[in-house]
Design goal:
Rossmann fold; 21% strand; 2 domains; 7 strands; globular; 44% helix; seven-stranded mixed sheet; alpha/beta; binds S-adenosylmethionine; 7 helices
Length: 209
């Protein structure tokens, strides 16, 4: 098949899959910008993570469905910061930072919004761009996860909660980095809304020491 035809067939298959996906349909009806909202909803309903009055950050927030869900739960009480590399539309009730989370200047922006207050809840759904080269992709996944856990060492309050995406194959690093971040207990979760072929998993750390 010629490359153009192949590309067309691929995007048609993607569209078909989107149209058949019950989470995509639900998200459209509820006004969520992405089906990803249901991964957070499922974990939140089980573990009651998001409460009014909290200080919360949503890392890798674009297009914004996790923040939409969080704002619905928090109302106008508390502070929600959403951050992404990419530009994306604001959400009423949340503060937006556009920047690379691994860059020190982005961390300074976060700090100036919280005025040094510690977070009750750190959410991260960050995922790097995939190159298709296994070793490079693995290094990217690891760098992002490491940056989230390092951030929690100083920015997550004792007793605070971290929910972060990670990818299969990172288990050894997860154990090393969680120890460093004084996270002694964590759960690994694969929400129903996460596609079965996806290598993504979520790490939930409750009650950081
Ligand atoms: C799966 S999407 C997040 C979807 C989002 N949770 C939602 O519900 O709409 C992953 C996001 O991580 C962001 N990302 C990846 N690396 C990042 C980095 N170094 N700093 C900030 N954002 C990053 C990407 O730009 C992308 O928008």
């Amino acid at each position: 098949m010629a490359t153009g035809k192949k590309r067309k067939a691929k995007s048609r298959a993607w569209l078909d899959r989107q149209n058949r996906d019950p989470y995509v349909q639900k998200a459209r009806k509820s006004g969520y910008r992405a089906r990803a909202a249901y991964k957070l909803e499922e974990i939140d309903q089980k573990f009651r993570l998001i409460k009014p009055g909290q200080t919360v950050i949503d890392l890798g927030a674009a297009p914004g469905s996790w923040s939409q869900y969080a704002v619905r739960k928090m109302g106008d009480k508390g502070q929600l910061i959403m951050l992404d590399l990419l530009p994306f539309d604001e959400i009423e009730g949340a503060q937006l930072i556009q920047g690379d989370f691994t860059e020190p200047e982005t961390l300074s922006k976060i700090n100036s919004l919280t005025e040094g207050r510690l977070f009750d809840l750190v959410l991260s759904d960050m995922a790097p761009n995939i190159t298709g080269i296994a070793l490079q992709d693995q290094a990217r996944y690891e760098r992002l996860l490491e940056s989230v856990l390092t951030f929690c060492e100083t920015a997550l309050r004792p007793g605070g909660v971290l929910l972060t995406k990670f990818f299969e194959g990172e288990s050894a690093q997860v154990i090393r980095s969680t120890k460093k971040a004084r996270i002694n207990q964590f759960k690994t979760i694969k929400p129903d809304a996460s596609r079965t072929h996806s290598k993504e998993l979520y790490l939930l750390a409750l009650n950081r020491k």
